[in-house]
Design brief:
By secondary structure, this protein is α/β, with parallel strands linked by helices. About 50% of the residues lie in helices and about 15% in strands. α8 packs across α10. It starts with 6 loop residues before the first helix and ends in a 5-residue tail after the last helix.
Amino acid sequence: MARYEDVFENNRKWVERNIDRDPEFFSRLATHQDPDLLFIGCADSRVPPNEIMGLYPGDVFVHRNIANLVVSTDINAQSVIEYAVGQLDVKHIIVCGHYGCGGVAAAMQPADLGLLNGWLREIRDVYRLYQEELDAIEDTDARYRRLVELNIQEQCVNVIKTAVVQKTYVRTGHPTVHGWVYDVSNGLLRDLEIPFGEILGNIQEIYRLEET
């Protein structure tokens, strides 16, 4: 684990490596950003977005919070989506959760966690939606992993519900919303192959904000 005092030295070395690779790297970054991807992920320190995707600064717009939630009343997340889609014109939105998520684990416990209760209720609502499937899984770890996946799927649905995503998709054919899960035990990403088109079609009957 790096000490606080090491951070600025590490930063200087990181700058040098990037300049050695591309002398115009920082001057180009300073003028604009043009990412194709919006990554909505967990704030867990073990899941650094650019690194796990092998991407550089400027390649991905990022929003992170506990358990990668997309809540309609969370102005932070909603503003990020609005800006990424409406201003940056991202082509793909990725909701990425991870196995071993502490937020999901906490939501599975019958405990009063104070300020976190309202936030974790979003995950407990996912459990309620899929209670029959989840309760049928006898192995606790397997049930936990499945809730991680289902939470990702439901947060993808929440992204699709937003006005800017619906309107922009009708007008341009993008962005597409994807659900990924990251395995901290082996470093691998997996596409959950969320059926974006099917979900969009289904929710438009209730959440439609734009004529098609």
